[in-house]
Amino acid sequence: MTQDDLFIADPKMRAQGVNVFYGEKQAINDVSIDVGTDLVTAFIGPSGCGKSTFLRSLNRMNDTVASAKVTGRIELDGEDIYAPSMDVVQLRARVGMVFQKPNPFPKSIYDNVGYGPRIHGLAPSKADLDVIVERALVRAGLWDEVKDRLQESGTALSGGQQQRLCIARAIAVDPEVILMDEPCSALDPIATAKIEELIHELRGKYAIVIVTHNMQQAARVSQRTAFFHLGTLVEYGKTTDIFTNPKQERTKDYITGRYG
Amino acid sequence: MALTNDHTVKAFDEDLNRLRGLISEMGGRAEQALLQAMTALKQGDLDLAAQVVRDDKKIDALESEVEQLAVQTIALRAPMADDLREMIAALKIVSVVERIGDYAKNIAKRVALMDQTRSIEAIPLLMSMSSNVAELVHDALDSFAARDAELAVRVTVRDKNVDDFYNSIFRTLVTFMMENPKYISESAHLLFVAKNLERMGDHATNIAEMVYYVVTGEHMEERERGETPEESAAAEKEQG
After folding, report:
1. How far, in whole angstroms, is CA B201 from its chain's centroid?
2. With DSSP H G I counted as helix, E B as strand and the rest as coil, what are the percentages for chain B, rounded to 5?
């Protein structure tokens, strides 16, 4: 494996020398990584390794934590997302996020998906919004299951459906990047398989980064895998290489179940 | 790489150890079958030859036991990285060892067909060849047990000796047949024995290549190989 094989010619996001601190404690230490649109990138690592913290720094989710401080540079299409001129609301529309537990708004299925496009002014008319909502639900693989009950509450759906609703909500604002923080850890295997199939479908349309504790899942859905440990990026490589022939001893110990 | 038996899930280590134990036992039996078959051949010992044929069933049984355990481990434990490579290698190695056992059985079966082998001059050469092959098989399986990539590489290098033996025995037997037409049938059998031994050496090499892959994650580079009598005969035919 040479660096050339890992080169991403046109990275959607690029992190360089990123450090994240929570108060005195350094959670992320000098991490550099590129994320492309044609590849799904998985972040793996033991609890507390910093993978979620790093993921959250990619759309400034850590801004909501008072003691959090990010240094280094993170670019979206070459633009520094921590620059003062960056509109954080716009940023989070461009870099969407799906969380561990599905968190639909206590609103109708239609409004869950339509809310974002409406406040971002993406839908001038009701007809436009109908189109956007339908397209997002179709892309999220949920349309056929909910098309006859769009006015029912989003919270009435099953866990797996709720998570796909959250993905539909994320893609309704036409983001460029979707960050997923353990999107399947609260779902059963069937719902998980549907989300994984969805990730596969969405690849190429959006840059996708997924944090997962389930290594089989990382192996199934991603083309690139980054292994984090104690706040550092230990190894980054093609998913096939990471899971058949990792170069770093720490990566191997983790993925073969020898860690700790 | 050291032998690593330190998975968080200890039952996984137990599965791996059992798998390694079964493969070692199987290899030991195959090696013994080879040595016994050659002793039977040299001494015309029909009882020993029959025992080799009987014992081959145990090798076959071990093969399916390893296959079962490996498939089960893959299904239940989802091994990764070097563990995964080991499972795949285990599956391939046992089918190779089973072939080695079959060749030994094949040699043993020929013992009954030859009553005058002792006067054929290729016999001492065959005996030396077989002890070389037995060592190769032994070392190849040792390299698997010890995760020793260097030993594995040496096995593949030493296989060249076995090939040289084969070429030399082939010529010796052809000459012998021309001079002693009444021994043609025995000599032909011995040619097959030599061929079987040569194939066993190749299989030892295959094991060593798999061990190299398990340990390093890389494939061993292709070796330069000498021509076998078959290849040189084919080449001569094309030229002629």
Report:
1. 5
2. 85, 0, 15
Dist CA B27 CA B214 (whole Å): 18
How many CB atoms within 10 Å of residue B99?
18
B4 → chain A, closest CA residue: A258
Q: Domains in chain B, please, with CATH?
A: 10-223 (1.20.58.220)
- What pLDDT, in 10s, does the model give residues B176-195? 999 988 888 889 999 999 99
pLDDT at A3 over 70: no
Domain spans in chain A, listed from the N-terminal domain onward:
11-255
The superfamily in CATH containing domain A11-255 is P-loop containing nucleotide triphosphate hydrolases (3.40.50.300)
Chain B residues lying within 8 Å of A258, measured CB to CB: 4, 6-8
Q: Which residue has the tokens 């061929």?
A: B195
CA atoms of A253 and B82, how far apart (whole Å): 10
Place of tokens 């690592």: A45
- A21, β-bridge pairs: A26, A69
- DSSP character for B233? H
Q: Residue A243 and residue B79: Cβ atoms within 8 Å?
A: no
The verdict on ipTM greater than 0.90 is no
- Put simply, the answer to whether A244 touches B84 (Cβ < 8 Å) is yes
Round the average pLDDT of chain A to a whole number and report it: 92
Does the pLDDT of residue B240 top 60, yes or no?
A: no
